[in-house]
Specification:
2 domains; three-stranded antiparallel beta sheet; alpha+beta; OB fold (Dihydrolipoamide Acetyltransferase, E2P); Dna Ligase, domain 1; single chain; five-stranded mixed barrel; Rpb7-like_N
């Protein structure tokens, strides 16, 4: 499959050349969903090996406060907390955890602090973390073409917005031929999360086609 790359400012002829050599991804519906379920740990670890994935595999230690109802089901309680934090930006990860595996409780017994009923544990696990830092390149599949921007779905989960360059007119933008289902490589400008930790990416088009 041909791909389009995005990142530095470019002219109309360069954009058009990149689009003409591109083809829609196979088995991609004409209207793509804004998000689907997260990949499994094995799938995420495989994706991390790909160029332009911005996925990192790391060991991470963290503190967990388990409600008393998980006293005899510690692993279930730990997984429930970790699952709730997936696809949410985390300062400790400097990114978004998307999958985890190989959970280890670092000591046999947990702690109860003062009169608080929670059981405090330290755990270590292997995480796959999405870290699209500014200046890095990402690959996504176009799922929206608008007069002002292109929408992309990254790893079938994260939404990215690539605005129309100011020096390109709306009519030129319309005639470039961006299509839903095309794979696009773009440069990350910045990423942000809202109060709920939901992640969004803003990107910038590049001039060279990888196809």
């Amino acid at each position: 499959m041909a791909e389009m790359e995005a990142g530095s400012t470019f002219g109309a002829a360069e954009v058009e050349a990149a689009v003409v050599t591109s083809t829609a991804a196979p088995n991609v519906p004409t209207t793509l969903p804004t998000c689907v379920e997260l990949p499994s740990f094995e799938a995420a670890r495989t994706l991390a090996e790909n160029r332009y994935s911005c996925l990192v595999v790391m060991q991470h230690r963290r503190h967990i406060a388990l409600p008393p109802r998980f006293l005899n089901r510690k692993r279930t309680g730990i997984c429930a907390q970790l699952d709730a934090e997936l696809r949410r930006y985390s300062d400790s990860f400097q990114g978004v955890p998307v999958a985890y595996d190989d959970i280890k409780i670092t000591k046999e017994l947990g702690d109860i602090i003062d009169d608080i009923g929670a059981i405090h544990l330290d755990i270590e696990a292997t995480f796959v973390v999405f870290q699209p830092k500014p200046g890095k390149k990402l690959m996504g599949i176009i799922n929206k073409v608008a007069p002002s921007h292109i929408g992309c779905l990254v790893h079938e989960c994260f939404n990215a917005s690539i605005p129309k360059p100011d020096h390109i007119t709306t009519e030129e933008w319309k005639n470039f031929g961006f299509q839903i289902g095309i794979r696009l490589v773009f440069k990350v400008l910045h990423f942000d999360s809202d109060s709920a930790g939901v992640f969004c990416i803003r990107g910038k088009l590049c001039k060279n086609s990888l196809g």
